[in-house]
Amino acid sequence: HPSVSNSAGVVTSSSTAADLGKAVHAGLEQYRLSGWRDGADTGVYLLEPAMEVMRSHLIADAEMMSYEAELDELTVVGEKLITAYDEERPGSLTDWRLLGDNGIPLVEREYAIPILGGRFLYTVKTDAMVQRANPPAGRAVDYKTKSYRYLNDFIRATPLLGQGWGEVAVLHVFFPHLNIDGMQYELLIKDRG
Q: pLDDT confidence of 30, banded at 50, 70, 90?
């Protein structure tokens, strides 16, 4: 992003797929935060608050983007995705614990470093920062909702994605004490049989 204080934003159109992804993403953020107690990740997460956040995002987007007719179907898909996430417990929920900074969980955080002599800022936004105790390591987590149809394309492209490499590089600047060993993509498949 240019480091300009008076730059104007650009409004882009949305799609139901993108809005579903954003809503599920917000639900998963709430899911992670529900396990945070007394400055630490307890490993016990609450499903219903995550569902409520996801539903409220979908309702707001449906009203704004005029696709109320598809709202029930999108809500069912979102509920299935978050429920499957809860039931399957990906590695970041079992072997890894959410990191905190002064008692505040590192969820949905944006980090920026100056580049090109400070004329620009390179920014990344992590969905969550997690840490494993044994062997010690840190990792950025990124949630992705994907259609089964495009899953192989995403998996093949993952080693080449600038997002992951850039995110890890920036996090090394902010967390030099952690052994950040990479990026963990947690895929939620929308239309699996």
A: very high
